[in-house]
Amino acid sequence: MTLSNVFSFPTPTKPPTQPLILLAGSGLSMAGKIHDSVLSLGVKYALFLLLCGWSCPVRAQTRLPVIRAGSSVVDVNDGGYLERGSWNLSPDARPDVYRASRSRKQKWVTFYTDLDSIRVRVVPGSKTDFVILLNGRDSCFTRIESSVPATLPLLALPSVNDTLPFELTAQDAILVKALINQTDTLRLHFDLGTLLFRITPETLQKLKDLRLSRGGDPSAKLIRSIRMGRQIWDMPEVRVGQIAAQDMDGRFGWQAFDNRILELDYDNRRLILHDRLPKKVEAYSKMEIRFVQSHFCAEARLRAKGKTYKGTFLFDTGSNLAMALDSGWLAHQQFPPDLPLVKTLSFLDGAGNRYETRVVTVPEVQLGSDRVRDVPTSLLTSPGPLGFDVNYFGNAFLKRFNLVIDLQRDVLYVKRNGM
């Protein structure tokens, strides 16, 4: 049993220094303190940039902000979620680009060095440049940019309609056959808990003449295309995924259909790509998709012992669990600890980490306007895979709903199906 493609993030802590604050697309500070000597360095490095031909996206910008660092390791707080040591400075990059986790709303991204910090407002389409001066001599040109374009490519193609049939396996995996480089057929499962394409080490060992987009044997053939139905991904980003559903060669996630409208029809076992929102959604519940560190999430409510509990749930269609509740969320919500124990269970996350759980039955779960009763639920007894308070819906639960996923507007439509 797996919770797919989840990663460990440390708990946020309050930084010791006041950050330099930048508006989106601006190289000039709006608040915070910076020494005059550092600002003068900013003028010098702006001239250096002009000589080197490195362009800045800001109109009439005359200098870049400069912050200091004594270590190449940087902590990043992206929209309220802090990852310690997640960024390494690279003086050779011109610029080194940090793509903020997905959000169509305004948010803040803060870089913390061991000496300084800078806070940048991120909105769709924004790009903000600055310099991190490493050890007083190496200029690390850095850009924070949004992962969402400023304008939506709505109906950019005359027609993107397509239907991808899938098999729902005995382990509740959504199996879609994919053609690699027009030659090899792989069994991939669709996992909303994954971002792009992942192939297992065992599959790579079997297909020795193939290599991924990063690393591998340079003499082997690069994965240049992946085809499913009429959908073709040219030069896709493919990485190793240590864990996949049983009998699968790998998995693929929501980013494969970014800025598209995708219908997940469990009743008829098909993924449908629409060029516009289907009329049927008028009968569905409409919900906001919440991307937490780019993970696909939505809000749901649980009811137990006469009380209602609200939480954020990561949609993990790659897992054959029904529901898992994070230990931090359980404590903060004061969720009843004495629901009758059904059994104990352990599972692996996408990185191969094992988690021990207590399985209980939650009397009622509400997603949208639909309610499901008596849902088997794994209670995590230690911090969850993401390191913060987010819960999980696996495909044993999600298969009970048909979904229309509008990744042009980040809206989810859900309706209880016949399963």
Key descriptive features of the protein:
about 425 residues, mainly beta, globular, disordered N terminus, 8-stranded mixed β-sheet
Distance between the termini: 21 Å
Task: Let me know the largest β-sheet.
Answer: 8 strands, mixed
Apparent shape: globular
The fraction of residues in strands falls at: over 45%
| Overall average residue pLDDT | 83
Can you count the beta strands?
35
| Secondary-structure class | mainly beta
Oligomeric organization of the protein chains? single chain
H/I helix tally: 4
Radius of gyration: 23 Å
Low-confidence stretches: 1-16, 26-61, 154-159
State the helical fraction. Answer: under 10%
Q: What does this molecule look like?
A:
There is one protein chain. By secondary structure, the protein is mainly beta. It is 8% helix and 45% strand. It has helices at 36-52, 201-206, 327-333, 395-398, and strands spanning 2-3, 20-22, 29-31, 66-69, 73-78, 81-88, 96-99, 107-112, 117-122, 127-134, 138-145, 162-165, 167-168, 174-180, 184-190, 197-199, 210-211, 221-222, 225-228, 231-234, 238-240, 250-252, 261-265, 270-274, 285-288, 290-292, 295-304, 307-316, 323-325, 341-349, 354-367, 370-380, 391-394, 401-406, 411-416. The strands form 6 sheets. Strands 13, 14, 15, 16, 19, 20, 21 and 22 form an 8-stranded mixed beta sheet that branches. A 6-stranded mixed β-barrel has the order 27-28-33-29-32-31. Strands 3-2-9-8-5-6 form a 6-stranded mixed beta sheet, with no helix packed on it. A hairpin with a 4-residue loop joins strand 8 and strand 9 (117-122).
